[in-house]
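ugh ok fine here u go
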Amino acid sequence: MAEDPIAQSEISALTRRFELGHETTAREFGIVKSDLTAVRLQVGNLDQKVGGLDEKVDQLTADVSAVSGRLDALAGEMRTGNAQILELLSQLVGRNPDAS
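structure:
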């Protein structure tokens, strides 16, 4: 019994559609895979940059602490100096400026 030419034509058309769909799917999968690889590289680069920022923030925190300590010491010295100035001025109150 001979095969039906219409059925053979339909089977051929379906086979072509399947093969084209498979090629398209494979191509799109390749694009997605490539994009995913690029995203992974970018995430890796960002991770390194964030790691570098952590170190910089730690260094800046240490620097700010050091400056804060120096400012506290300077403020203490200024209070001491102001107190000495006030004491000396208090001693001069009521004295004759022409007397030695």
